[in-house]
Amino acid sequence: MSDAVKDILAGTAGGIAQVLVGQPFDIVKVRMQTAPTGTYSGMVGCAGDIIKNEGPLAFYKGTLTPLLGIGVCVAIQFGALEATKRRMAEANLAAGKGGEGGATLSSLQLATAGAVAGLANGVVSGPVEHIRIRLQTQADKNRIYNGPWDAAKKIYAVRGIAGLYKGQVSTLWREGLGYGVYFLCYEELMQRHMTKHDLKRSEVSPGYAVLFGATAGYALWSIIYPIDVIKSRMQTDGFSGDAQKYKSTLDCVRKVWRAEGMNGFTRGLGPTLLRQV
After folding, report:
1. Do 183 and 217 form a contact (C-beta atoms < 8 A)?
2. DSSP states along 78-126
3. How far apart are CA 63 and CA 128, in angstroms?
4. How far is CA 31 from CA 4, 44, 92, 175, 182, in A?
């Protein structure tokens, strides 16, 4: 088995674990992001409301969609990241920089490689996130969708492929910027640690790798969280007529700012940071 396949399988397993552990935090985040102002007193109030009205299993609404898509997302991220890094290493080598084989990438190159991986991933994560959020926010009574496949079919039947990709502009901004920040932060921390202790990457302990990943995750969310709010608002918005609040991504940004100010862009941040732990 090649190293690439091992990395993809390991990434998929880690992604599945992350979804299962993080899903309860994610539904609280999404509910807080998209509910009318004043609906919840805070993170604990939102979680309590879900338990009281829908039961504990409600925390796992929409879980199947990301579980099915995680393997594809990891493969796309890994493939795009490694392909971009190879092209940059070749360019470095031709320019006589980047050390042996041109493999030492600059900060800009690291961020760019991460952004390319994020944008490529957005092609799959966009509709996956959209369907998950629709399922997370629907009430148990008078359900519109009876699962991810039913949601995908009904959205496609009414709005076509564009309906499945609702909120895609904010999704691409989130994925591109987020993965650029994450990969830059992670690699800078890793490289600094390896240089300081004269280690090869394979010699870095798992504990440090986890620490660097967690730190990079916090850096990611600190940058992209307002974009994530807009993405959630767009993906829970109606498709037309009176049900549609936002005409575009920019219109959503303007309306959230006018109605709620900066607080509107940080609602649900608490459970997001807890999930990252």
Report:
1. no
2. HHHHHHHHHHHHHHHHHHT-SSGGG----HHHHHHHHHHHHHHHHHHHH
3. 10
4. 37, 12, 46, 21, 25
Question: What would the two tokens of residue 181 be?
Answer: 């920040």
CA–CA–CA angle 175, 25, 53 (5° rounding):
130
SS3 content of the chain, % helix, strand, coil (to 5): 80, 0, 20
* Cβ within 8 Å of residue 201, ≥6 positions away: 190, 194
Which of 128, 277, 176 minimizes the C-alpha distance to 217?
Answer: 277
Residue 88 has which token pair?
Answer: 């940059």
First to last CA, the chain: 32
Output the tens digit of pLDDT for each of the chain's 277 residues: 666 677 678 778 878 888 898 999 999 999 999 999 889 989 999 999 999 999 999 999 999 999 888 888 888 998 999 999 999 999 999 999 988 888 889 999 999 999 999 999 999 999 999 999 999 999 888 889 999 999 999 999 999 999 999 999 999 999 999 999 999 999 999 999 998 999 988 899 999 998 999 999 999 999 999 999 999 999 999 986 668 999 999 999 999 999 999 999 999 999 998 887 6
Quote the CA–CA distance of 193 and 179 in Å, as a whole number: 21
* Contact assessment for residue 230 and residue 171, using Cβ atoms and an 8 Å cutoff: no
Q: What is the pTM of this model?
A: 0.91
| Closest to 227 measured CA to CA, from 184, 180, 187, 157 | 180
